[in-house]
Amino acid sequence: MGTSTRASAVLVLLGAGLAGGVATSPSAYAAPVPCTQTFPAVSTSGSTIAPYGRAVFRVQVNGGWSEQARVTDVDVHLGLDVQAADTSLVLTLQHSQGPTSTLMSRPASPGGYDITLDDEAGPWPLGATGGRYQPEQPLARLDGLRAGSLWVLEANNYGGGPVATSNMLVTVTSDRCDTDGDGVEDTSDNCPSAANADQVDWDGDGTGNVCDPTPGTAPVVSPPPVTGVPTTPGCSASCAYPRTVDLDHRSKKKRLAGTVSSVAVGCRREVPVTIWRQRTGTDRKVLVVTTGRTGHYVVRAPRRPGRYYATVGSAAEPLCGTDRSRTVRVKHR
In terms of CATH architecture, what is 243-330? Predict the structure, then answer.
């Protein structure tokens, strides 16, 4: 096959890859998406390269990565069985976005080859048929390209005998992955080895609670202030803002005074406070006073001596808690 014909075939394959790209949003991860994944190189014309022939292998890289995922490392495994002397092999790996890396271009002696090509390995010595070695051109030429795509591995046999292929693999590492499958990508995950979609980190040390041997204690979060007395229908005491009421007898001024306190503004400002007198049997309601803007209230002390206390809270304020003050004694004037 001529050079122009081979180029056309490769372009057709690459065009198909661009049309069928993978598009998976990180938020749509339903299972772990490993950073490093291995994909088979599938021949379009059988597993044997004919004498003076050529074979094209499609590598569909679709590891569930997002469209934004980029290549950070590539390794290639070659399983070859050279069956004739005076054979020379040229293998290249091309990405659908264009760049090509030459994996090998060298004479090949008869026999089996089990080679992994890795930029971080040592040089590939002549005659070596097994091991981990550097490719002829760095695979780093493919770094930064879109990870999810169609790649093409092309093998040319310049020899008088066939070359059988097996276990042809491409291993790709991506910068966008979700190892634990919790929907948070590893680069942002405060615990990439264990699922924790909520990313809770009580002590704020950057390590999520599920990975932290000393996670600390849950912070106390105050409820947000409210601007009026809440009246949410159907709300029970379990969702009420806590509040307290106190009561003092200012005997010289002949006044009863106190304060309603709450983190919720609407549960202390302009709310009713009931003054009671203790009696044998049923206590008697004496009066109802309304607090001011700060929650403070003052009322003339009752003429009748006895023990008095204040209460706050009613069914009309379902989001505000109830409380009873201490008892104070009012003596004869």
Answer: Sandwich (2.60)
